Input
Amino acid sequence: MPRKLDPTSDRPIYKQIADQLRSAIQSGEYPPGAALPSEAALSGTFAVTRMTVRQALDVLKAEGLVRSEHGRGVFVREQPEVHRFSRNRFTRQFRETGKGAYDVEMRRLGLEPSVELAELGQVRAPADAAARLGLEEGDPVLIRRRRMYADGEPMQLATSYVPWALAEGTQMVQPDTGPGGIYSRLADAGHRPVRFVEEVATRMASVDEARFLGFPAPQPVLYVVRTAFDADSRPVEICEHVMAGDRWRLTYEWPAD
Output
């Protein structure tokens, strides 16, 4: 890098610059965490205006390849990819480790997990959550909204809803739900989850979601909604996950018979 730009090409100059920077990142010339040359340096290298350089960098930011730090510059994102195996992540064996599924999953991949509790308390059930839980819209539910990280990088937003009748008076309403998390506390209350249904979709991130995940502008995210059922087929919890698509690989396995 750099290769000569082609002013006769149908591809805009800023995209040609973005192509070259992307190739340099993917080849390892700029490894994760490395700083890209400054706007002034790139402007001189490619003989273009700084505005054109900014447009090129905006392309890479939108792709999630780089992030900017005010007053410091633009850096290649350190993006751990999480391979999520849905079949066994909520088994009793996982719960008996005393850790939540996310914690166990991250540590098995050699990543350091951290979770920030963003909202906790009784709220009125939104329409979609109420329908999944077999409640009426506006019925009381417990909400637990978390921001989840791996090695300091934002990975997902997770929001759980539990019928207030099951959560009231239990450790589920506390910031620390105790060993094994919500599912172990539901089991303690006689509502051990025995079956899960998980739906996967994509949608555009909201402005707040994009800001947390480090997107310069809203873009598609994975939207995963899991419903937990007890032995009486009663829905006892739902969890909505909003995930950056470039940081997750979802794997599902089931028997052929």
